[in-house]
Amino acid sequence: MRIYDIIRKKRDNHELSKAEIEFFVDKYSKGEIPDYQASALLMAIYLNKMNKEETVYLTEAMMNSGDVIDLSEIDGIKVDKHSTGGVGDKTTIALAPLVAACGAPVAKMSGRGLGHTGGTLDKLEAIPGFSIEMEAKKFIDSVNKHKIAVCGQTATIAVADKKMYALRDVTATVDNISLIAASIMCKKLASGANAILLDVKTGDGAFMKTLDDSFELAKAMVDIGNGMNRDTIGMITDMDEPLGFAVGNSLEVIEAIETLKGNGPKDFVNLCETLGAYMLVLAKTADTFEEGVEKIREAISSGSALEKLKVFIENQGGDKRVVDDYSLFPQANLVIPIKAHRSGYISRIEAEEVGVSAMILGAGRETKDDELDLAAGIILNNKVGDYVNEGDTLATMYLNKEEKLESAKERFINAYSIVDEKVEPKKLVYGVVTKDGIKKF
Predict the structure, then answer these.
(1) Average pLDDT, whole number, for the chain?
(2) Which residues are annotated as catalytic?
(3) Is Transferase there in the keyword field (predicted)?
């Protein structure tokens, strides 16, 4: 078998076999296929696309290019949740203890963030003492005992994906549904979960900007998951404006804690209820979506989810006192209110611009080597559809480096549109994708 023949076959828009895809992924991950030939094949895939079977074969080959985690020693159906990312997306920090409190085991491997704010691991590390490094035995024992553990992905998971993504990034071949879906799912499948819930964001602050593209990506990933014998469900949720009110690592953890105390923002609570209910259905700890929602609500109202969060924090070396004493989090030296420049209804809050503004303050990374300021970020006061008066505080910025303020303020203010006519808020959930097809709401 020759890589030249595989490139020519895809160039001429023919379907690649399982053996051909496995040959490419194996040889490229070992350095036996040069970048110039790999990039030629990736461009042929980008232009001519892959069908469902090819995408599954690619995902499986990438998954098998590194370690595949065995979680069979953990009791019950292990459900993982993956979000395609957005602004203010602190979902795992509230959702994992919620689902664990309802009896479903959460054994999650997460990543760090490159962009608006940190990833789940960065946010968790805002908790003093919290460690995301865990030996395999402790990870498994923690989930069996407490139903919850979150750790960092090992460098040996899906080795081919790291090489291929770096090449796609510099050859303009990132934006292809099959390549995106395979990149996401190979890591999720290698992480050992029995079932996967996908939270596919759509809108201004999301990777996929349009509803059609978001549904297409969700469908591709659901097909991959179910094609590899993992129960997989995809949700399409809004990211046209930031999720909740907090954007920034410590600030988002505090908002997640407040949510478990019953004080969460309406949109974030709604999202946790929706995603949590589907996770319980996948874990078979709820028979129906409606029963799942009731269990999630009960876990908040009874306080069991908050207690589970404390156990989770303490088990991973963190100071559980942060749940009741927010002064233990990293603190910002400067707290600056941002005022509305006119009266009216908020018609738009561009999530991406808010995210970039938070990144400028220090909450995110522009390059992988950037150091996060875990105290930096923004707390919004309003959502789309709210009325504000001129001079009202739209948001509060938290930062430690004053020289970053003006640039961040300019980006933030430009993210807002305020109009005279009342505006209806957007819906939060646009639909669900299962093995049976797409259901739009």
Answers:
(1) 93
(2) 82, 161, 168, 183, 187
(3) yes
289/276 Cα distance (integer angstroms)? 9
Is there a contact between 244 and 89 (Cβ–Cβ < 8 Å)? no
pLDDT digits (tens, 9 = 90+) for 260-287: 999 999 999 999 999 999 999 999 999 9
Q: Where are the beta strands (DSSP E) in 222-315?
A: 231-238, 246-247
* Beta carbons of 158 and 190 less than 8 angstroms apart: yes
d(CA 140, CA 71): 7
CB atoms within 10 A of CB 289: 15
Mean pLDDT of 137-148: 94
Q: How confident is the model at residue 100 (pLDDT cuts 50, 70, 90)?
A: very high
User: Which residues are within 8 A (CB) of 12 and not within 5 positions of it... i.e. 6 or more apart?
Assistant: none
| Length reported for the chain | 441
Pair 183, 218: CB distance under 8 Å: no
Domains of the chain, first to last? 3-48 (1.20.970.10), 79-324+430-440 (3.40.1030.10), 331-419 (3.90.1170.30)
pTM for the structure as a whole: 0.91
Neighbour count for residue 273 (Cβ, 10 Å): 20
pLDDT value of residue 426: 86
Q: What is the pLDDT of residues 168-215, one digit of tens each?
A: 988 999 889 999 999 999 999 998 889 999 999 998 888 888 999 999
Residue type, 56: V
Give the integer Cα–Cα distance in Å for 235 and 249: 24
Is the CA virtual torsion 77, 257, 266, 291 positive or negative? Answer: positive
What are the b/e assignments for 202-212, b being 16+ CB within 10 Å?
Answer: bbbbbbbbeee
Dihedral (CA of 120, 74, 257, 324) sign = negative
- Write the pLDDT tens digit of every residue in 295-334: 999 999 999 999 999 999 999 999 999 999 999 999 999 9
- How confident is the model at residue 114, as a pLDDT? 56
